[in-house]
Amino acid sequence: MNNKERLYLEIESNSENESLARVVVSAFAARLDPTLEEISDIKTAVSEAVTNSIIHGYEGKEGIIKIECFIEERQLVVQITDTGVGIKDVGQAMKPLFTTKGDQERSGMGFAFMEIFMDELEVDSKIGMGTKITMKKLIGGDYTNGR
Length: 147
Fold this sequence. Notes:
By secondary structure, this protein is an alpha+beta fold.
């Protein structure tokens, strides 16, 4: 892999930067010539991951969100990392409709959307140390399995 196939970005954990993350990652993915649907899927998943870092990871406080993307053949890999509070129970957090912020009218669908719109999702989190979300999507891939 050469340096042209990797993107590294750090953004502050404020809601205005969520749209920046979407645009930057989708522009990076464009080198794989994705369909408009694939770009939309990537943007949605990135939005959900960044929003989770802002709202749940940093709980609205200042922090840095790291975004790293790279390409492995036709697969886009996106990693979004924060050093926030971490997730107590990742399995429970990944269940649709589960939210720790019900008072803020959160839907609890962030991880579900990431799973729906990307081909693979991995969540690694440690209390007090933060969360790393790794998402993968095959661009122009095998659509015979319903993807």
